[in-house]
Design goal:
Iontro_rcpt_C, alpha/beta, signal, 13 strands, D-Maltodextrin-Binding Protein, domain 2, 9 helices, five-stranded mixed beta sheet, SBP_3_CS, ligand-gated monoatomic ion channel activity, single chain, transmembrane
Length: 273
C-alpha cells in the first residue's frame, strides 16, 4: 500500500532530480560560454599582443640605456606584427632558462626572443613560420692564436648562454662549458682569460665587435644554420595562423626588410635551406 511516507520521499526525490538537472544545465551553459569566449579570444588580454624575450640579447632584444625601454630587432618585429594584427604590442622580459615555462603558465602570448626551432622545444610549444635564419659562430679574443678552427675547441673552456642550442653545440667539443645569463656577458668575459671561446649567434658577435668595440674575432664559418621562430602555446592554431599571416604581410610590404636593414644592414630572413 502506498503510504504517506513514500509519497513524501517520492516528492523529495523528484525535487532533488529537478534541481540536479537545472544545475547540470547551468554548468553546461557556463562551460559552453567560457569555451566560446576562449575560442574567440586569441590572446590573454583582448586587443593586446604580449611577447617575451630575455632582454639580454643585443641587438635582437635589450634595454635601451637612454630610454630604459626594450629595444632591438625582436621588439620591433613584434610591434610590426601587432600593428598588422590590429593589436597593441606589449614586449616583456623573462629569464631565458624559464621562458618556455612562462609561456606554458600563460604569462604572455608568445615568445619573440630569437628562439631556434628544435625537436625538444617543438614538443613543448608550437612554432610559427621562421622569422629569421642565422648560424652559431665561434668567437675568441682578438689576440688568440691557439684557436684557428672549430677543431681547436677540443678541451677548451667555452662560454655559452644558459638553456641555449649553443650549449648543446659546445658540449660536442668539450666538457668545460661555462653558462652565462646572457651572450653579451659571455663575450665580455673572453678578455679575462676565464674562458677560451664563446659560441653565440653570428649577428650578436659581429654587433659586439662592430658597434661595441669588443676586442674579439670570429673563428671559421658558422657551425650550423638555425631557423628562429615565434613560440606560442600548444594548440592555439588561430593565433598561429594570425601571426603567420601578419608575418607574411610585413615581409611583402617591406616592413621586415626595413627593420632588418636597420639592425644588420642586410635581410636576415635568408633563403629556406
Amino acid at each position: 500500500m502506498y503510504t504517506y511516507t513514500q509519497e513524501v520521499l517520492t516528492i523529495r526525490y523528484l525535487r532533488f532530480a529537478l534541481i540536479s538537472l537545472l544545475l547540470s544545465s547551468l554548468l553546461w551553459i557556463v562551460a559552453c560560454s567560457n569555451q566560446s569566449q576562449s575560442d574567440n579570444q586569441l590572446t590573454l588580454e583582448e586587443g593586446v599582443f604580449s611577447y617575451a624575450m630575455s632582454g639580454l640579447y643585443k641587438p635582437f632584444n635589450y634595454t635601451d640605456s637612454k630610454s630604459g625601454n626594450l629595444a632591438g630587432f625582436d621588439v620591433e618585429i613584434g610591434e610590426a606584427l601587432a600593428k598588422e594584427m590590429g593589436m597593441k604590442p606589449n614586449p616583456v622580459t623573462n629569464p631565458w632558462e624559464s621562458i618556455i615555462a612562462g609561456l606554458q603558465a600563460n604569462k604572455y602570448d608568445a615568445i619573440i626572443g630569437s628562439m631556434a626551432i628544435t625537436p625538444e622545444r617543438d614538443k613543448a610549444v608550437d612554432f610559427t613560420n621562421p622569422y629569421y635564419r642565422s648560424g652559431a659562430q665561434v668567437f675568441v679574443q682578438d689576440k688568440n692564436t691557439s684557436i684557428k678552427s672549430p677543431e681547436d675547441l677540443k678541451g677548451k673552456k667555452i662560454g655559452v648562454v644558459k638553456a641555449s642550442t649553443f650549449s648543446t653545440i659546445a658540449k660536442e667539443y668539450t666538457s668545460e662549458v661555462t653558462e652565462y645569463t646572457s651572450d653579451v656577458t659571455a663575450l665580455q668575459d673572453l678578455p679575462t682569460g676565464r674562458i677560451d671561446a664563446v659560441i653565440t649567434d653570428q649577428a650578436v658577435g659581429f654587433h659586439a665587435i662592430q658597434e661595441e668595440n669588443f676586442p674579439l674575432k670570429e673563428v671559421g664559418k658558422p657551425l650550423n644554420l638555425d631557423e628562429m621562430a615565434i613560440a606560442i602555446p600548444e594548440g592555439n592554431e588561430k593565433l598561429k595562423e594570425k601571426i603567420n599571416v601578419a608575418l607574411q604581410a610585413i615581409i611583402e610590404d617591406g616592413t621586415y626588410d626595413q627593420i632588418s636593414q636597420k639592425y644588420f644592414n642586410r635581410n636576415i630572413l635568408g633563403e629556406e635551406q
